[in-house]
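Deliverable D5.2: sample structural annotation.
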Amino acid sequence: MSEQKTIPTAPAPQVHGLRPVETAARLTGWALLLAGLGHVLRAVWEIRLWTAGEPASGPPDQGEGVHRPLNSLENSYHLVTFLVGVTMVICAVFFISWMWRVRDNSVALSRERPKYAGFWVYLGWVLPVANLWIPRGVIADAYRKSVPGRKLPAVVTAWWALWVFGMACGTGLIYRDSADKLIERAYTGVWPLLFSEAAMVAAAVTGFLMVRAVTAAQTERVASLTAQPRAEG
């Protein structure tokens, strides 16, 4: 009777410089959804301001440094706006951390220099004009280097288009309004604000899907490179 022996196999190739990305992706996804929820909440308050109508005393910011006392609804809008800002900061911290990991992993997988230097992971969000394309470019470059030959998911472009639209028509790239100015805009013309909030919510949801798609593609590539086939005979 012959004995069955295990034939030793060569160890799987090791990819050096990889960073764990699954936990960062999960936290980033939840942070994006939390930020989207914040924009939903602020949209509700903007509708409440619009339906209530501007008080007879006029807008909160009456010009020349004069501000009238806020009513209870306006005070609560300030609080909601503050909470939205907090969720955006949390989202930014997790998102940038995820971007760093995905970018570093793409370099380890491809052994090629990234298209954008590391400082663009931060500055790409805040420099005028550059912030219209560089953050998306960093992610797209990391995806293409991680899975060469695979088409960039459409959700990457959809997420970025919604983000830029939401920032442009609301409070960001064009408007730098205080909460009091936003209250005034809600009283007199709420629709641009609501379009902005809707776009930001959609950007949060598509961003969640984008993070999952990019992370899944990268982890799949890593798994294919590090798998150890077993042969028995």
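Annotation notes: The CA atoms of residues 23 and 162 lie 25 Å apart. The two ends are 14 Å apart (CA to CA).
The annotation will be released with the project's public dataset once the embargo ends.
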